[in-house]
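HUMAN: Mind sharing a backbone?

ASSISTANT:
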Amino acid sequence: SAIYELSCEAYKHLGKTSNYYWIDPDGSGTLGPLKVYCNMTEDKVWTTVYHDLQMQTSVGGSSPEKLSVLQLNYSATMDQISAITSSAEYCEQFISYSCKMSRLLNTPEGNPYTWWVGKANEKHYYWGGSGPGIQKCACGIERNCTDPKYYCNCDADYKQWRKDSGMLSYKEHLPVSQVVVGDLDRPGSEAKVSVGPVRCQGDRNYWNAASFVTSSSYLHFSTFQGETSADISFYFKTSASDGVFLENLGNTDFIKLELKSATEVSFSFDVGNGPVEIVVRSPSPLNDDQWHRVNAERNVKQASLQVDQLPLETRKAPTEGHTRLELYSQLYVGAAGGQRGFLGCIRSLRMNGVTLDLEERAKVTPGVKPGCSGHCTSYGMYCANGGKCVEKYNGYSCDCSKTAYDGPFCIKDVGAFFEEGMWLRYNFHSPGTSMKDLVSRTLLSSADPEITGPDLSLNKEELSFSFSTTKSPCVLFYVSSYTPDFMAVLVNPTGNLQIRYNLGGTKEPYNINIDHRNMANGQPHTVNVTRNGRDIVLQLDHYPPTSYSLPATSDIQFNSPKALFLGKVIEIGKIDQDIYKYNTPGFTGCLSRVQFNQIAPLKAALRPTNTSSHVHIQGELVESNCGASPLTIPPMSAATDPWHLDSASADFPYNGQAIGDGVNRNSAIIGGVIAVVIFTILCTLVFLIRYMFRHKGTYHTNEAKGAESAESADAAIMNNDPNFTETIDESKKEWLI
C-alpha cells in the first residue's frame, strides 16, 4: 500500500511543516510518486513543482532561425502535474518577458510573435495577468501599457528595456512546457524570459466528503471497474459500532467493505472461487469520532487490507481458478440491499486512483449531507502552545491569537531585537473599555483611578519567555501597579537571574536568586514563572522546575496591575532602587514569545491585533528570532521522522532551480564552496601583506644609517639591506604560486 501521502494537504494534517515531500496523487495507480515542495501557510497549503529553466533566460540576438524555443523540463511528468492541478482549487504560474525591440503578442487581431505551450501541447496566445481567449498582457487589461495603441508593453517596440509579466492562473492550461519567442531577427532585438514554478493550493479530493445521517442512507455510483485490480482507500469517522461502507454486486461476484464491530474492519470479495474475507482488528475502538484511514487492494496475486498504521493483513490468491471480478450492479456507498448502512462521515474515497465526488452526489440525495464537521477531534492536537483548533468546512486551522506564537501550528516564536535604551509598555487598561469587558477579555486588569468599582487583583500569574543578551545588569520584564506592588525579572550585575516580587506585607521585596549561572552569555535562555497564591514555581531552560514560597507575612494578592514593561521601566511614582539602577543604559538583546497570563505583548506590537492599542514602544522594534530558544521545538531526528527526506537519497533531477519558496540546496552548496574559496584567498592575501610589511618594518628602523649619503630613501634602504633584492624575489615567488 502507498507509503506516501496523496498530497501536501495530507502532510499538513499529519502536523508536518513546510519542506520537500514525496506525494502520490493517484494512490497505487500508474503515475508513481513525485517530489514537491509543500509550503504550509496559516490558512493554505501550497504545492510547488519546479523546472530547470533559469530565471531571466536570454534569447535571441543574431540567430538566423526566426523562432527560439525554450523547453521547460519539470521534476515530474505532465500526467503527475495534471493530477495535482485537477484536484487543486487554484493553480498559478508566473511568466515574464523582458524586451528590447522585441514584440510579444502584436495586436489582438494580428499573429502573435511569441506564445507558450501548455498542457496537452496546446499553444496559448495570452500572457501572465490575462486570461484564455484574450490576446493581451496584464497592462492591456489594466489599460496602462507603454503605448496605448498596443496591449503589451513590449509591443511598443522600444529601444529601452520593457517588461510584461504576471500570473497564468487558468489551471486547465498549466503547466507551461515551452515558450516560443519570435521577434528576434532584427539587429538590436533582445529578450529575456522567466517562468516560475507551478504552484497549486487546496486539495478538493482530500476533503471531498459526505455525512450519512440514517442507517438506510446511501449514495450510488456507476459500476466499479476493477476486474483484475482494485485499489480502494478512504477516511471514515463514526460513533456507531457497525455499518456497510460500500458494496458492488455481480451475479455471484461481489466486493464489499464494512465496519463489522467497534474494533473490526472487513474487506470481502468473491471472484468465482468462493467468498474471501480479510479482517483487521484494532486494539482501540474505531468508533471514537476520529478520522481513520482504510486502504484495501486486490489483484490477481493477493489481496490486502490496512487500517491506519495497524499491521497490514494480506491473503494470497489461489494459484488456480478465477481471477476476474465481474460486477454489474451500481456501486453503493452506505446502506446496500437492505443491510445496515454506515452512520457518520466518509471522505476522500478513491477507487483505482479516481476520487468519487461524494459531495456533489450528497447534495441531491436525501439522508446524506455534503461535507463533514468535527475535524478538530482528530487534528486539534497539532495546534501547539495553547493554540485553539478552529473547525473549517474542509479541515481545520489553528488560532494562535491568544498565544505568543504564530505559524500554521502555533510553533513559530514571535520575538524582537531590542537596541540599547529601547523599551515596550503594555497597558492592561486601554481608554474606552469598560472594566468588566476588560477583565473577561484578558483575565488581567487594573483599577484605573478614574473608575469607581472594586479594586482588581491577581492571585496567580503565569509568565514565560526566552531571551538572550551579553550585557548586565538589565530589566527583562516588569509589571507595575497602581499600588506599591510589582513583579520583576532582572539580570543582576554579575549576570545572574533574579525574580523579584513585592506584594506588600514584607519590609523588603521577596527575591529568588539563581546564582552560579551566567545568563548574560549571549545564548538563548527560557524562563517560566508560575505563581499560585504563596507558591512560586520557576523553570529555567531544561533544568528541573524549582519551587519557592512567599514569606508567611507576605500578601498573596498582586493588587491593581497597571502596565507591563520589557527592556526598561518608565513609570511615575516611587520605583525600587535596584531597578532604577538597572534601568540605565537598559536592556540590549533579544526577547521572544513573551506571554503573561493571556497577554502576548511582543506579538501585540509586531502583529496588528485588537490589543495593539495597548502597546507603546520607545525606539524601533525589529522582529527577530535571535532570542528564540531552541528548546521550544524539539527537532525530530531524521531516523525517527518517517517523512524526513535525505537530499542525497532523494532522486530529484531538477532540484537546483528552486525558485520562490523552495530551499535551494544546490545553490546553498555552491554558495558555501565559493565562500570557502574567497575566504582562503583572503587569508592568503592577509598573510602576504603581513609578510611584506614585516620586511618594511626592518626598512624603517634602518632608515637613518646611510640615509645622508644616498640620493633617495629607496637607495638608503638598498644600501643598508643586503637582503633587499632577495626579499623582492621571494615575494614575487609567493605571488606566482
